[in-house]
Inverse folding.
């Protein structure tokens, strides 16, 4: 059964699932096209795959799995020979709780409330809401400080081994570092800065974390 990740390539969460597949050495395809037919976002066809019209959705044969953390757990169960899940219960819980935190709260602060004010997926250039941007910046800085403390001196976000927490966090930091408005904050966080460099140097990062394409357009 083939693996297809439904969603546009610029999506941070699509990139997260791609990173996870790359780390597991799985073959996959991605994009909004299924069997030669383009699925429009939030169309009836999309809603049939995800009840809230979100991305990504993993299609594996007749199965459809949505939500990034559930997709990563599924991939580990479906392909146990390359599982990235910790065997130790305490470590597994740490990865699970941080992965959920990153996908919910960190994504909300760094991407929904900040990055998407500066860049516009699939839209032409639009004015930046400077008032909303100024209001969101303290939360971004606070969140990066929190992430820096959690990372500490570890090689990966939740310890000594790569996990889905790394797959979820890396695309967010990658986009922030590419924007002049926020790259300076990462420069001031040596732990996160070096972490992102290491993630980009991994084979998975080299394949997935390419320069954002035309799907991300800077606001004016």
């Amino acid at each position: 059964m083939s693996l297809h990740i439904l969603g546009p390539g610029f999506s941070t969460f699509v990139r997260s699932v791609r990173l996870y597949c790359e780390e597991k050495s799985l073959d996959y395809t991605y994009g909004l096209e299924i069997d030669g037919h383009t699925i429009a976002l939030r169309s009836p066809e999309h809603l049939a795959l995800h009840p809230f019209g979100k991305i990504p959705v993993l299609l594996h044969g007749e199965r459809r799995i949505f939500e990034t953390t559930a997709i990563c757990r599924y991939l580990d169960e479906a392909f146990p020979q390359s599982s990235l899940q910790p065997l130790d219960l305490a470590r597994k819980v740490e990865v699970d709780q941080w992965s959920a935190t990153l996908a919910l709260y960190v994504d909300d602060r760094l991407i929904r409330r900040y990055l998407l004010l500066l860049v516009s997926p699939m839209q032409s250039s639009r004015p930046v809401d400077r008032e909303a941007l100024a209001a969101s910046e303290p939360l971004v800085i606070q969140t990066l400080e929190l992430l820096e403390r959690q990372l500490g001196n570890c090689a990966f976000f939740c310890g000594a081994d790569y996990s889905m927490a790394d797959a979820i966090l890396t695309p967010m930091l990658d986009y922030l570092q590419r924007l002049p408005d926020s790259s300076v904050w990462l420069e001031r966080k040596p732990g996160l800065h070096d972490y992102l460099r290491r993630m980009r140097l991994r084979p998975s990062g080299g394949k997935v974390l390419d320069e954002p394409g035309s799907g991300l357009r800077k606001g004016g």
In short: Strands lie at 3-6, 29-31, 33-34, 37-38, 57-60, 63-66, 119-121, 216-218. The two ends are 45 Å apart (CA to CA). The longest helix spans residues 89-118. Confidence is low (pLDDT under 50) at residues 213-220.
